[in-house]
Amino acid sequence: MSQENRISGGQIDRSKTWRFTFDGVSYQGHPGDTLASALLANGVRLMGRSFKYHRPRGPLSAGSEEPNALVQLRSGARQEPNTRATVAELFDGLEATSQNAWPSLKFDAMAINDRLNTFFTAGFYYKTFMWPASFWEKVYEPIIRRAAGLGALTRQEDPDDYDKGFLHCDLLVIGAGPAGLSAALTAGRAGARVILADEDFRMGGRLNAETLEVGGQPGADWALGAVAELSAMPNVRLMTRTTVIGAFDHGIYGAVERVSDHLAVPAKGKPRQTLWRIYSRRAILAGGATERPIAFENNDRPGVMLAGALRAYANRWGVAVGDRVAVFTNNDDGLRSAMDLKARGVDVVAVIDARKDGDLLPGVRHLKGAEVVDTAGRLGLKSVTIRQADGRTETVAATALGVSGGWNPNVNISSHHRSRPVWDEGIQGFVPGEDGPPGLTAAGAAAGVLSTHGALAGGQAQAVAALADLGIAAKAGDLPRAEDAPVSIVPKWYVSGGKGRAWIDPQNDVTLKDVKLAQKENFSSVEHLKRYTTLGMATDQGKTGNVLGLAVMAGLTGKTIPETGTTIYRPPYTPVAMGTLAGRSRGKEFKPFRLTPSHKWAEEQGAVFVEVGMWLRAQWLPRPGETHWRQSVDREVLATRKSVGICDVTTLGKIDIQGTDAAAFLDKVYANNFASLAVGKCRYGLMLREDGIVYDDGTTARMGENEYVMTTTTANAVLVFRNLEYARQVLWPEMDVQLISTTEAWAQFSVAGPNARKLLQKVVDQDISDAAFPYMGAGNITVGGVRARLFRISFSGELAYEIAVPTRYGDALVRRLMEAGQEFDAIVYGTEALGVMRVEKGHVAGNELNGQSTALNMGLGKMVSKKKDSIGMVLSQREGMVDPNGYRLVGVKPVDPKGQLTAGSHFLEHGAAPVIENDGGWLTSKVYSPHLGCDIALGYLKAGDQKIGKRMRAVNLLAKTETEVEIVSPHFFDSEGERLRG
Amino acid sequence: MADTLHALTALGQAAPQTHQVGPYRIEERFDVALASVAIRKGRAADVTRAAQAAGIPLPEAARFAAGNPYSAFWVAPEMWFVEAPFATHEDIVAAVKPLFGDAASITEQTDAWVRFDLSAPDLGPLMERLCNVDFATAPDGFATRTVIEHIGCYLIRHTAGAVTLYGARSSAKSLLHCLEVTAAAVI
Amino acid sequence: MIINHPILGPRDSQEFVYLGSAELMNRPDGMTTGVEAFHNWLYNRDNPAGEHRELWYHEQGDRSWLVVTRNTVTHEIRSVELARDVAKAMGRTK
Amino acid sequence: MRYSGFRVIAEALTGHKGWKPVWRDPAPQAEYDFVIVGGGGHGLATAYYLAKEFGQARIAVIEKGYLGGGNVGRNTTIIRSNYLLDGNEPFYEFSLKLWEGLEQDFNYNAMVSQRGILNLIHTDAQRDAFTRRGNAMILNGADADLLDREQVRAMYPWLNFDNARFPIKGGLAQRRGGTVRHDAVAWGYARGADMRGVDLIQNCEVTGMRIEQGRIKGVETTRGFIGAKKVGVAVAGSSSKVMAHAGMRLPMESHVLQAFVSEGLKPLIDGVITFGAGHFYVSQSDKGGLVFGGDIDGYNSYAQRGNLPVIEDVAEGGMALMPAIGRARLLRTWGGIMDMSMDGSPIIDRTPVEGLYFNGGWCYGGFKATPASGWCFAHLMAKDEPHKVARAYRFDRFLKGLMIDEKGQGAQPNLH
Q1: N or C end of chain D, less CB within 10 A?
Q2: ipTM for the complex shown
Q3: Which residue of chain A comes nearest to D290, CA vs CA?
Q4: For residue A630, what are the CA distances in angstroms to A611, A829, A832, A933?
Q5: pTM exceeds cut of 0.90
């Protein structure tokens, strides 16, 4: 039978029929349905299992507060666990499966837990499973982990795209029910920039679920008209399927737009969801209210539902959840549910009203002062047991029971700044507190005003007030006529007596007994209650259960509800897909690439690239026949040392420093002296942090009287620039210094090796003989008429230059150099060979510049001038940092040339046990030196400067290897620097 | 003198490319020279005078001003980026420096950036997904630094339908990729 | 958060890099200050729960260093100044 | 009352009538020998060990809110001892050893689960650094394994191996690392302390310190003056506020760190994984939620809540590493206030005020330190000398230039 519970009416498009499946069974539904409404229309109440006891569960609600009806939506890599069937929009071909049940939803083996419930009380696991200790990981925990969890991820990459964006507005209105629509209309008509966001796919909020009239027409029709008017306003942006997830500082709100979730697959190029950051000057929370249940025995069966949800399914979706319906209420709104259902032709068998007083409803069995004490029906409600005012009990056959314990304003977002909501005795609910997010006010049910008129009036009034704050005059116009019924409610939280369980948090299976146990064990603060029982920690974050739970605790401790207080409401309002929060920043697009000027050329050569921060640099460039990276690297090193090699060093930071105080400025930011640097020369400089630790190094060239070009390490280019700006703006604001980064403006290549000059001379337009361009010289030249810069500096220990041309010519320059270098067998070397040569030469780099080492540690202590005040100078002299037995940079060679070294190995003396007391330091960088024919390394060794020539062990306890090593000078190669000056 | 060197665009091509995604046109520009001009301490009046004499606009904060041959936009207190046609001003520092003498610090910036000119009947829907600039209310001539998918950029709004982006040159391909996929998601 | 930049108006704090307390502006002169006082300046902080003057750098903006007066409990920002102006007013020179 | 499986069964069969309060709610006495300010993990552990290991009595813990309401109840539950530096590693290894016997020691199942922690390697330099670190760990008696890419793939084949911006090149594993049910740690210590006669006084905030002739006399509180021979402050996050009552400025800033949990999922992640190319670390709780975190928000804050940019940054790191979690949903975010110290390492030390002791500066590594912190602080307070594994945690290390700077970031708290 198809759609056996579908009744007339509702906002569904019956002209189209869609097929969908749940657990492999095919059903029919219509556009406008949710998965839950369509399943209910087909007579399916059982949709899930609870977390702990694996109790059968059907939907409790008709909205995003749903704790029970969680399914796995879609299949394959798009499988989406824990999806609330109550908000999943139906589409043709939708597939859903049940979760947390095995072998089937109807027969779940883990329901054994339900039989054993008396053992599985709140926190029982804290009291047992402790012996023997090793059994926790091996036995108990694996069982618990397999049983726990809800839905499953497939472990496949999410195939959908996600997007992000930024929106700006005068007024953000959260929720498009009567209050939100009224606020948006008021603000829109006043010309303000308005964003109206609603989580539903249809605006109107509760009006869509009601038969109430607004302005003489059905509320849903009035909402349609309001939306039509708003959509014609260019200053108003309407966002359906958009959940505002959190209030952040200074009027910034996060919102998730479900762009494609109502489609089988997103359209080509379209994201599944978009994360919007909304920058609002003012915001109105019009997010409505959520009905709450009453706790009574076995109140968790499929078919037991919030009364307002029963009404919504009937009015909005044309679904009668059951053929015989009862309603249990403590307030007038429950009566409205009963009457609406009756009006739709549903058989209302009893209205159980906890209130003793008041009028009786016409035409239905209205039991005053009564309560529901139990229910029956294993996989779905079959009957309800009622205790009447006189104490008599009676069991009534019913397939649906609507429960209304009152309505909780949705204060969540107003409490995201940790403001505490305030108890409102009139509605028996919490309303937003005074100290919520600045700029945010609440209207309508969210503010505790539960009538339609109150919502319309509140929305309008709050919009007028918010815009007045901004200097925008908005008119409080005539409001459409709407019901304005007062709230009539008596507190009724739970039904006492009975031995069974009464659920408060149905997903996590927290019952009245658990709260009582928590109180007995003195977990009676609400935070302890939550943490001990897991109340409100399920996927619904306690939207229906929290207030109920704390009201029960209040009753047990004899405190009032406001004294008991609430736990903290946290973002997000409803759970958000991780993909949405990440947006496009994933896979290869996690971070942008930075490509060097020679990248294209290197790609053509088959270079192997390596990530250096965001840069991709050539690591080595294999030649035909080379099968191991070491062959390539050795060749590159040897060729450079023998003749000439070229390396793209564009990634080094370059900063242009000008101004009449530039020299004095450099003296402040470098530890060593720069004032004495002559025009046309470069100097190596050491930069300290204020704590005296070295954080960067590089060469700076004086290109003119007041013009310098500084280079930094690749890693610290941004940090150095930031620190220079700090020094010039904050520390020494009267200095005449101007800064600009030129890192990317120039393509820079190192040309190193005995034939470097010969090669360059073929390419550049000027004389660069030793006389014209001496060691550490710097100047402007040209290459084929293109302006260029030349620096005679070396990182490799060879006669070397760095030549720079405007970046667009970088590709041409590397090709030119290789062409001109043919006669010298010039090669391009990558970062590995660069590393080999710098270790051979004993230059410090990233592994030595570890943020923990001083100039003294590096053997560069004399560079720190004490004759001037530079950053870091004073504190570099603290006693612990000038310890003569502290770490010193040393060279390390295996005693047996075949011995292998590993960076990160630690130094131990011969015979010393591998314990920390004997730790001598560690190897920082290790390379194979083809020049020396063995592994070599740099290391920090305690009192290393006193241990040159000594033999020790380099121990790698991870690999259980050790190598006997000789401690040597870190300058393995040409320690006198003769080649540099060649 | 050896042969001159041939240039590549930031996207690694001999000539700039134009990409069209629906109504969105993304045009790489390779024909604009760029230099920073920063006022030396206490020389604001000299710089203003020299700029006026040379016809170099020095707009107020967060603004771009067009001129011929020089246009300029503000980048920092007492600092502007000055644009000029590359064909005539390839060595833009050599051209600009004499105009200011020692009153300003001038630095070449041409190749530090990739420039994309974006155009469409309305760039709003694209811009709101790209960066945190209130594009709809920004006036024409608005110039700002912003971040697009982790890449620092300068954005100049010429009109609602015409924008110039200067992004870090080394990330030109990543930036273009972002512009293209975002545009595809909007159309 | 939004920082109301003295030149550029409201800008998202994501464009900025945070350094720390504006007490750091009082850097002692290294030639006349000993280790103890220098260490006290660099390491010890008031760290108030309440109004806090602090340094932010507009890295993805105009590169201005700012002094932001912000409440560390509510995150409310009371004032924003250019650090250079503040430093000059403090008498910091070359 | 002793807890056991037998007890649980016996109570279940008799209607759970016999369970007793896990702690009393005593009124504060006029004077104690020891007053511990701060009823979080460290404070409760200190009181527990003072009573149990150091034979002390007349002890009170005073807490401004509820027990375990600070960072012990709002962290990502990770325990490990994979530190690098001499000042830290012995301490954290001592702590890990205490974790290993904790539940039997205090008779409470805190679900200490040594499922292993894996720090991923993405660059050669990281491998070098982790090799150095792994060796230091072993030298200190801890366990460490350096894994190559294929070994990591065998553990977690669904991580992003094939389309990563920063490829996984290996990992440093500590198999004894893992997770612990955080709240249960506070409750276990609280219950153990209470059973040994410690007064746990909730809703009692320190408003001042009475100091006479350089000696502590007691604390002023919202529940009146409480005299004490010795006062120990363990209020990480609020350290500067509380120590200001003693006129001290501390080498630290307070920062907010956000943490995150997803909806419950069937088992996916067995141990703890930290991404080495972004801000993301993750484990999966026994309930099935992915518990994860990233970097601090980065500005001084006492607000216990964070902002969206860090949430996005963490999600980006998560998706870059684990493209399969795109459809898992973030359920809840929260924020805790961290004492971010000037070198990223803690302080357990005397103060210039005689009888006043300080424990703080834990940055965001305090949870794993809880047992050793409590033990060492109790040692210091009981014996007036530092425990040997906590000797480096002195105030004066900054003056002497003996910083314990694991990350090498210098005197900028938000970078640690």
Answers
A1: N
A2: 0.98
A3: A149
A4: 19, 12, 9, 12
A5: yes
